[in-house]
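Cross-posting from the modeling subforum.

Setting up a comparison between two proteins and wanted a second pair of eyes on the formatting. Protein 1 (sequence, then structure tokens):
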Amino acid sequence: MALLDKDTIRRAQDVDIVNFCAQNGYPLERVSGRYYRGVEHDSLVVDRSKNTYEWYSTGQYGNAINFVQTFMGRDFRQAVQDLISGSYAATDVKGPTAEPQPFRYAILHDQTTDAVERYLCEVRGIDRRIVHTLIQKNMLKQDVRQNAVFVWGLAGQRVGAELQGTRKFDDGRFGHRTTFKQICANSEPNYGFNLSIGSPKRLYVFEAPIDMLSYWSLHKDLNNCRLVSMDGLKPITVEKMIKNTGRLYGSYPTDVHLGVDNDRAGHEFLDRLSKKIMSTPDGERITFHSLIPFDKHLPKANLPFYQEAAKRHGVDWQWIAAIHKAETNLSPTNELANGFNYEAFFGRDLPKNQAPEAIDLERSCERCAQHLEGYTVDGQTNITDALINTKLPFEDKRGFENKVKSVYNWYLAGDFQTDDHPSGLPGKDWNDVLLLQNHGNAHEQEYPYKRERPVTVHKTAGRMRA
């Protein structure tokens, strides 16, 4: 195989990362004339003036070739070939960067919305009445390439938009990408697709519009609330939407429900927001609530390990399971999944770029049970003392303790679901929940999300506002 010459490599490195992403459906959000942020990974920042990226949550950084390797799953040679084979613009790293411009809605609409309706209703399972309502209110469009256009509204004005593809990519190069996604240029920063039902007193926040509409499809009796998509995991968007709702409606939401994905990033996001002390201008405390789907799933295969270790050391198995859940979200690997950086028995705060490793669950449960035994008297465990971690700030230690106690109470009351998924969840987002219900693959006794009152969407859709 011939070696790549220096000129070929240089041409690949010079391809504008932002332009490459735009043409390949990898969503970036412009935050200034110079910087762009990843939509799916909000700690990913592209510096367009240098044509480099840095993924802060992992410590990875590099040039255009490294970007394609990391986010498109290509080896070095494939990445170079991808970059030089397309009609991508080269960047001028010495040139001035343009100042942000006001949003201008310049999307060319298709004459029908058939592709969007088919994709959202038949593929993603969204309630057809919700889709029709959004179309009627000009909040959902179809462009000439048959992408779904989610229009961002603010006080009756269009301030941004995002595109969601309705067809799979057909070039076969980037296997982990399935549909096109893009936030339109100059869309309102730290904002997103949103709608209001009645007079909002509560905020429901999701990572993407489809998650948001899936939740509404499952909870058609929602009222007096605002539904918001962050397009990723963005605390600043949550804070902005709280303030924005108060200014628009004259009343600040004091309850914020976070329907983020059931994965490491989602749990870290929830934990970090739960540590924030926020209040309305009137001094009312703003409380964050978890709406993470499948959060009460407990793998049946794990139960014997918890129970046998607990029996040997005279402690409640629910404490062991709760600590496992709070540390790593019941992961079979040692990667932490909490926003408090708490590590003890099941996970480690891994150095950047170190891959997670499988844990020995039996050994980890034994270590945990043995530790808890030292803080247990007459069957009662002093979990506050048992979880002391002198390395952490007080608020992190207390936050982790509260999380463990909450999960313990679920398990003690039998408020959890088991199934035969050996190591993973039945799904991780609200669209997965919706599809399980629509396809009849979820059992009602295992997934209480099915138990919704038969209220039609007409009651709420008619009072929906952007």
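Protein 2 (same layout):
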Amino acid sequence: MASWYEKAVFYHIYPLGMLGAPFANTEDAAADRFPELDKWVAHMEALGCTALYIGPLFESSSHGYDTRDYKLVDRRLGTNEGFRHFTKLCHEAGIKVVVDGVFNHTGREFFAFQDIQKNREGSRYCGWYKGVNFGWNSPYNDGFGYEAWQGHFELPCLNLQNPEVKQYLFDVIRFWISEFDIDGIRLDCANVMDFGFMQEMRAQTASMKPDFWLMGEVIHGEYDRWVNDGMLHSVTNYELHKSLYSGLNDHNFFEIAHNVRRLEAIGTKLYTFLDNHDENRIASKLNKKAHLPLAWTLLFTLPGIPSIYYGGEWALEGTRTRESDAALRPCITLEEGEAKHSDLTDLIAKLARIHTEQPEFHGGRYQELLLTNRQYAFARHAQESVCITAANSDDQESFLSIPVPLRASQAENLMDGSIIPVENGKLNLTLPGNSSVVLKIRED
């Protein structure tokens, strides 16, 4: 029986941006933006999403990743009570909730860092941070130095080998489970985190809540170093993300197929996406808007746990600048979004339901069936059935003769319900330009 996260279709929200929170957290009183967020639950449900990744949420000073207080929801969004109500609405709609765990570093306003500023060598928290050194000075003129994430000294790095730090962070996760009933954590900066810390986290969280999901932000590297029975359940599949848009832009399905084969051993466990809060929007990355439906079809049917970054269902565009990621994290009301509803929105909702309903996509084996620069077909296997995706990225229609990997007489088109015969072990299709199809074939 597949777990909830193996079947999941995720929706991804960057709440500070989507809800129009001010960049600087300077107010004493909490805002009340959660009633606006509550409206999105029905939208996620209508799209066919069964899980939400939302974050950052911890009380912070600016962009959300400079944490002030791990047990307080960011006051620019609202109160703990407001978020508790939101998670309850999600769960009532059958939507699991995963939040950002910003555990690699804190902000400078976090209590432990401020204690070092105040008490210097006498602080009991000197060992909570990496590289605290009173022999040199930080760019903030603290009178001491410390290790900072990628040289950003507003983000001092926690020492995740310190038993007190580890226990504190495990208690934070326990707090979020007990207070908000969250279902998982997305570990920010997992690629640079201490492996021992993540191993202990896996063991600790397994006893806190059954089926609690740990997903890490990892860009480069051998993903199975992080994704295994002793570490995390999943990491972000940036490799597939890159190959999807560049493979379509270059008319090179070989790049996508090569990447899927490379990750075959763990690919079904990886968190897959077309865009997110750190990446330019897929609608801005693709050279041809006609390739957007193809990209979404591949995302939902290739191995992985697919996600929709808010606004992607309406083909929102956005490109980061050297100074700002704000264009990737826009403020948008649900009403403004729904006014942009299009055929793409309907396609994504249909693909989400196909992904949820067909067991082939819940960890099913991948098999390449046909591959050229501009045409691609592959199967996902279940016990006595397969789902086959066929795609044509050329502007012209293309005839495909696809070998069927089991004994069958017909295929059902899951997009429109039509029936296509299987003749002599082959599916013979004519695909229009820039189109794709998802088929279900049951063994005779």
